[in-house]
Write a structure and sequence with these properties.
- With 493 residues, the chain is of the alpha/beta class.
- The protein has 15 helices and 15 strands.
- α1 (7-25) packs antiparallel against α13 (374-456) and α4 (73-84) runs parallel beside α5 (105-114).
- It starts with 6 loop residues before the first helix and ends with a helix.
Length: 493
């Protein structure tokens, strides 16, 4: 088909896509895009647990046994000394220990001073909580501030909560990053400025771009600091876990913690240290704070080792082009392949393209690419409906045009028929005149024969004959229809 025949669907597709892009830039589709992204993550195959990381959680049964909480410094010192015998590579203490809890203050301080692989925590944002002074002085702390999206789900994490280099807190990394860095030192991997962009962090094979306010399905959603999107494992509780007193009692296999990253923190319901993950909407289960830190540490270690990828995005212009392509394609396909069953063809074509778009987006998520899915689908349907209406109008115009052409052909046929009838009438009239002339000649011939007979055989009454002849001639001149009257009058002779 000529290109000009597709100008209308192109206009429809561009208009529909433009409306969708405008709505997206206003943030009207952001929650839908987050929901689609979460669903795609939940459809990913279940992943094997990261065996490099284990958790120690404080449960309700541990509190009942200790008969108090927070635990005393002496109990923590006993626990950490016991854990040290298992030879873990790194220990992350996800418990605030900025204030001593008697008894055993000096015992715990000694542990903090002598453990080179113990990482404590602080909170720099949203209600600052200081770290243990000893661990802070040794730069063995990580921040546990967590950026929440507007729907309350944790999809991002800080690498450095404070990005202002003039602020001394800008040197404090996220707890997950600090644990990953300490773990990877044994592998000969240390963090540095990225070879791709000096403003990025590089850890082994992992390069970590700053998360931008419009990346993925986000619209003008800045978190501050230096953050990235979490490539969540499925299920979110993806590492082995034991209880606090299991370690003190020695109920853990001797090699359970050996050369592993250990994160210990609260896990009981009463602590309320839970977060919504992308899986919460489907499973109705939240994740513990220690599970969240394990997710971040696991991702950073995996990317540094070249095992997993960060979630990546197209530039803004690429996402707009992606939306435009789907809306325009839907209009063109429906315009070209619509059928008389307009509703059915619209549902089939629109539904088929919707499934194709979602399928591509899901495959992309499995390859660590977040492509827009909801805006293209909306563009598909917004373009399909007017395209179907335009197809119906085009079909109706085509039938009207065929009807007008048929009417024009009928009119022309009638004109030709009238011309033929007129010509035939003229021919018949001419033939009729010829017949009349022939009849006249026949009558004259018969008259001459009568005259000849009279001359050959004179009648007794010549005067009567002449009078009749004169009367016949007069009738002949006055009435050309002699074929009826002449034979009768001639019989009189």
């Amino acid at each position: 088909m000529p290109l000009k025949n597709f100008l209308t669907p192109l206009k429809i597709g561009c208009a529909a896509s433009g409306i969708v892009v405008g709505a997206r830039l206003l943030g009207l589709l952001q929650f839908w895009e987050w929901a689609a992204y979460d669903r795609f993550l939940s459809w990913k195959p279940t992943e094997a647990p990261d065996e490099r990381i284990v958790l120690v959680s404080i449960e309700e049964s541990d509190i009942q046994r200790a008969k108090t909480y927070p635990f005393s410094d002496r109990l923590w010192a006993e626990f950490l000394n016991k854990l040290k015998t298992y030879q873990p590579r790194v220990i992350g203490l996800d418990i605030f220990r900025d204030q001593p809890v008697a008894p055993g203050e000096e015992e715990l301080r000694e542990v903090f001073r002598t453990f080179p692989n113990l990482i404590g925590i602080t909170k720099l944002l949203a209600g600052r909580v200081p770290a243990s002074p000893i661990l802070a002085q040794k730069a063995q702390i990580g921040d546990v501030s967590t950026p929440l999206d507007r729907d309350g789900v944790v999809r991002r994490t800080y690498l450095y909560p404070v990005s202002d280099l003039k602020n001394p807190d800008s040197a404090i990394p996220n707890l997950g990053l600090k644990l990953a860095e300490e773990y990877l030192k044994t592998e000969g991997i240390e963090s540095k400025n990225s070879d791709i962009n000096s403003d990025w962090l590089q850890l082994g094979q992992g390069h970590y771009p700053h998360f931008r306010p419009n990346d993925g399905g986000y619209i003008n959603d800045a978190t501050g600091g230096y953050s990235i999107l979490i490539n969540w494992h499925k299920p979110p509780q993806s590492v082995a876990s034991v209880k606090f007193f299991d370690v003190i009692d020695g109920d853990v296999p001797q090699d359970f913690f050996k050369d592993r990253l250990v994160i210990l923190g609260v896990g009981g319901e009463s602590f309320n240290d839970f977060h919504e993950s992308p899986f919460t909407g489907l499973t109705n289960r939240e994740v513990r704070g220690i599970d969240l830190h394990a997710q971040v540490a696991s991702q950073l270690i995996s990317t540094a080792m070249g095992e997993r990828s960060l979630i990546q995005f197209w530039p803004e212009w690429g996402e707009i082009l992606w939306i435009w392509a789907w809306g325009t394609a839907a209009a063109i396909v429906l315009w070209r392949f619509g059928s008389n069953r307009l509703l059915l063809s619209t549902l089939v074509i629109g539904g088929g393209m919707t499934l194709l778009c979602f399928g591509i987006s899901y495959i992309a998520i499995r390859q660590a690419w977040w492509l827009p899915s909801v805006p293209p689908v909306i563009a598909i349907w917004m373009a399909s409906i007017p395209a179907a209406y335009g197809w119906a109008n085009r079909r109706l115009e085509g039938k009207n045009r065929q009807l007008l052409e048929a009417q024009a052909q009928l009119t022309e046929f009638n004109q030709d028929l009238e011309q033929i009838v007129r010509q035939r009438t003229e021919d018949l009239q001419s033939a009729y005149q010829q017949i009349i002339k022939s009849e006249k000649l026949l009558t004259i011939q018969q008259l001459l024969e009568v005259l000849g007979n009279e001359l050959n055989y004179p009648a007794l009454n010549l005067d009567a004959t002449l009078n009749s002849l004169h009367s016949l001639i007069a009738d002949f001149e006055s009435n050309p229809q002699l074929e009826q009257s002449s034979p009768q009058k001639l019989e009189a002779f």
